[in-house]
Amino acid sequence: MHNGLLFLVILSAHLAGDFYFQTTALADKKEKNYSSLLLHSLIYMVFVVLVFLVFETPWWFLLIAAASHWLIDSGKWLLRQTKLPKTRLFILDQLLHLITLLLLTMLTPELEIRPWLSFLPETLWAWLALLLLILRPVNVSVDILFSKYATAAKEESKRQNIDEDLKRRDAGQIATSELSEHHSDNLKEPLEVEGAGAWVGALERIITVLFAFMGQFAAMGLLMAAKSMARYDKISKGPAFAEYYLIGTLFSILSAIVAYLFVFKIVFPVSAVIPPTPIILITPTPIP
């Protein structure tokens, strides 16, 4: 791809400014206050300028990259006032950012990495972009795109906790006077350790891209099986949780595979370091 390495570096800058250095509080504020959007645009511009330290980019390249982000976010801010669904705005926003950066790098003359960074392997920049792409952005995407399934799973878990309390009361294990207090606790207490699911998903995607890089696609099935075994109890007891778990897991693995193929097969092609392992099917021999 023309200027493939430049695209990966500017993509890394975009991901850093739009996801990793944009807090949840700032993201919520900029939907209501335009001043918060301007603050986000300034933070984003800092990361765009850092690209100049890696490539000898012309001034107009940096200006267009920063200004286009501000314009797209401003358009999103205006559309947000019309009460359009958050999922559609998120998808449209990220697609426009990606297409803009892609066109910008394609129309820019071929650029080389600055000499003082030439000792670094080029694959390092590709891995940096890939890791930035599959971690926090995917977690944010899952939260936005599948929020209704997450809400349904949480409500189902609360109902199950209340049903358990009622069974314990009927069995004489809990007093009726304590029942309302237990119900209140079930509604307030978190269902799991905060952030644990995000960490599991992040590790899952890292392992997935490592398997893909080594050509061991069959091993991804073992990863899904191990994760399903850990969640078997909740999956078997809660249909809503099972649906949310399945959608989230498939989206997580699919996003990791697509990101890997995009970075290492389209933008910066490399071959697998280990030949793929063939899948051997063993047919049992019938006993005479």
What's a concise summary of this model?
The protein is mainly alpha-helical and 288 residues long. 74% of the residues lie in helices and 0% in strands. It has two domains: 4-120, no CATH class; 145-267, no CATH class.
Task: List strands and helices in order, with pairings.
Blueprint: H1 4-20, H2 24-30, H3 34-54, H4 59-80, H5 86-107, H6 122-134, H7 136-145, H8 147-170, H9 176-188, H10 196-213, H11 219-230, H12 232-237, H13 239-267
Helix pairs in contact: 1-3, 1-5, 1-6, 2-3, 3-4, 4-5, 6-13, 8-9, 8-13, 10-13
Based on the model shown, name its key terms.
288 residues, mainly alpha, 0% strand
Number of strands: 0
Which structural class do the helices and strands define? mainly alpha
Q: Helix share of residues?
A: over 70%
| Domain unit count | 2
Poorly predicted runs of 5 or more residues? 186-190
Query: Rg, please?
Result: 24 Å
Shape: globular
Strand content: under 5%
Describe the largest sheet: none
Q: What is the count of helical runs?
A: 13
What is the element string, with H for helices and E for strands? HHHHHHHHHHHHH
**Mean of residue pLDDT values:** 83
Q: Distance N terminus to C terminus?
A: 60 Å
